[in-house]
Amino acid sequence: MNGKLHSETGAFSSDGMRAEILNPFVHKLELDNTYDKIKTAIFTVILLPFRVIVICYLIVTAWFLACIGLYGLSEEDLRRKPMTGWRRSLKPIICFIGKLSYLAGGMAITVRGRQASREEAPILVIAPHSSFLDSCIVYATKMSSVIVRKESMDNYVGKLINYTQPVYVWRDDPNSRQNTIKEIIERATSKEDWPQVLIFPEGTCTNRSCLITFKPGGFYPGVPVQPVIIRYPNSMDTVTWTWEGPGALKLLWLTLTQVHSSCEIEFLPVYYPNQEEKNDPKLYARNVRDVMAKALGVPVLDYTYDDCRLIARAKQLGIPGAAAAREVSELRAQLGVPQSQLELQTRCVAAGDWVTREQFVQRLGVPIMTTASIQAERLFQIFEQRGTGMARWSDYMLCAAFLSLQHAPLHHLICIAFKLYDSGFSRLNQASFEELATKCLGMCQEDAHHLFRQIDSDEKGCITYDEFMSYAQKRPELSFIFASDATQQKSKSQ
Q: Are strands 390-392 and 107-112 parallel, antiparallel or unpaired?
């Protein structure tokens, strides 16, 4: 297959051409040397407390001004017409205080280009979205209207968000998506002087190695948009917040203990859609993404928010290779591995679980020294145990089974897992069951041990799949094993 290389690492391009796969949902951040560790420790003591105090003071001040500006206005008032008069005149002050809060944290915000007026571009398209610190764009764009879940407004920051007159997303509303698009269209095409609508079309955070699929919601109005790109050109990336990587508190701590950080915001020229793009929001979104990717010098990948959910689900269950689940799916599809081989490949564990690179490729049925063998070797790298040159075939097969059965109730995956970890005679001993429970039930070692003891009440030292399922059907805490994918998603949203 001919490839089209977009960068040194390569990626899938929007036209389906292939180079090496990127994973935009992973970010590695460690203090590798003694100097960084000592510096961070010292600044944690002498710099962090001062910065936190100043930032809190500035945020409280901005919040207080927002409370004054919102006094006497209901949410219905905010949605009915744009602010005017003295309420609107408070926005520049709040924006100034917001920028000061970033500066107090050691982050300087540099703005390049010119922000278009609402008449030129009613919608601002922001990418890449990689951090909670991207909220600085609200201050840099004079408090443009953000799109926000109504449920996330129930906190003190909600006052500041409300002051942007946001477009609300009601998660409990089954027609939420359609209603959100409708309101975006109304705002963008209104003759009234509304703030510009600010959207992050990627819909989730990535590591900025590429631009993933843009959601078309902000492109339905068919009006001109202004692309805005964000960069963090720092020697240590302490801001990127992805599905696999440091948590928000660790990132905030490391950012606030840097002597200096910087954020660059660049306003690109307004993008005017042609008639074809006006008629096809997805095409419009793709073309705007291409323009922004070119300006950033990164590839585009057809990854979506659903891929994030897939990775999150895999991590929650403890599936091996969870962070690379999307990549595993891509590689298996390119290798043309049929689902019928799943059962056959599962049996390969009996021939030995630990395999070398060559054995792994051979079990996949891929000829050596071919294009397909390169993809097979990449699969091996994902599951390779560091420093050993070996991978566990059962880890790969469990991930493959998860991908094949991702929309089926979990007990189908458990059935395959029992075969993978079978210690003989279609049953699992304690060690094998504990491994299964930690790798596809999301349990810790202690809970897995306790569960095995509960099922193996007669102390045979092993359990069968039927014994496990019989026990699970009686336990409410294990009911998720029998839930369909739709039921699982519904329970998560509640």
A: unpaired
